[in-house]
């Protein structure tokens, strides 16, 4: 009797939990299997479901036979209820233990079913643990491809043994820097490695890349490319100079004329002064007189823009050299003022300047060579004298 009661209690518990935890349509198959108690059964029962009713009937028969053979007494009933190890109710106790164990397993199975959620379907829970696959990042917006801005460059080409010519190059300004020198470098690197030109600092300081750009003498590193795509940009070497090759002029005559003005400080008692013993001091107000003169970088843009220099380049010193001559004449630390002015007394060296002002208009450093030439003429004519230095540096060495 006790075995039957336990067996019915087990079945009632199983029906209760499975009815309570019946998964929705399309739910997880594993949850349904757990609720049916497959994992609580031995492997043989799960593998052969058809044999389960026969085993249940056999269990009932065994329980009935045990009840008929063993007389029920109060003591044995008490021992069976308390699980005491008496010999008579051993069969009942042994029948209770598997049933209780099975009931406990079914309870655990039902608890597990309660904690599970359907993996799919409308009732599927969202994964909030953060371990799920993150959604892919949005694709970056596609940038519209810029339309090519083709600029035509016509460059003077010549090398010894050949006739000079103008060669055309097309450059996309979207793939090039803003300065003319950037275009020249791009042409040399990508289109024609035989193109010759000078360059160095790329900052308007050295004066190496001076050339004629669109009819104006200037520096290629500071001259912006004309944005008018319809008009070609023409590049020539500096005018009225011998050409070594392409855009490279011969600066030999210009440097020789610059050397004739002796561009260095000259002192009367220079032989008595210790070499490297001290520096030549200069008052700040005397230093201001040199502003607008010492910034010259000897690029020869003004020199080759002067028509008077074109006509008399063998004798006329030109605006760049004359401006540097004035710079050393008025320097308060220099003692050779009269000597320097005397060297300029010549019908051509200084007085070939007709104040055309091409030099001032074309200077890439915004200097005024024409003004310096006028002051030189005033000093030679006696209309103006060099101011006395406000700080006598020679006394430092006496």
- Main beta sheet strand tally, sense and closure: 5 strands, mixed
The quaternary structure here is: single chain
Structural class: alpha+beta
Q: Averaging pLDDT over every residue, what do you get?
A: 78
The ordered string of helix (H) and strand (E) elements is HHHHHHEEHEEEEEHHHHHHHH
What is the total tally of β strands? 7
Quote the beta fraction. Answer: 5-15%
Question: How many helices does DSSP assign?
Answer: 15
Distance between the termini: 139 Å
Which strands sit side by side, in order, in the main sheet? 2-1-5-3-4
Shape estimate: elongated
Low-confidence segments:
26-53, 70-99, 110-125
Helix content: 25-40%
Round the Cα radius of gyration to an integer and report it: 54 Å
Description:
Its main location: mitochondrion. Residues 43-96 have a biased composition (Low complexity). Its EC number is 1.3.5.1. Residues 27-42 have a biased composition (Basic and acidic residues). One of its GO terms (molecular function) is 2 iron, 2 sulfur cluster binding. Helix content is 39%, strand content 8%. It is an alpha+beta fold. The strands form 2 sheets. Strands 2-1-5-3-4 form a 5-stranded mixed beta sheet. A two-stranded antiparallel sheet has the order 6-7. The chain is built from 15 helices and 7 strands. The protein is elongated and about 140 Å long. The protein has helices at 2-20, 29-35, 43-47, 52-69, 74-82, 90-115, 180-190, 252-260, 284-288, 301-305, 307-311, 319-329, 337-343, 358-362, 369-381, and strands at residues 150-157, 165-172, 210-213, 216-219, 233-236, 243-245, 248-249. A hairpin with a 2-residue loop joins strand 3 and strand 4. Mean pLDDT is 78; it is low at 26-53, 70-99 and 110-125. Helix 2 (29-35) packs antiparallel against helix 6.
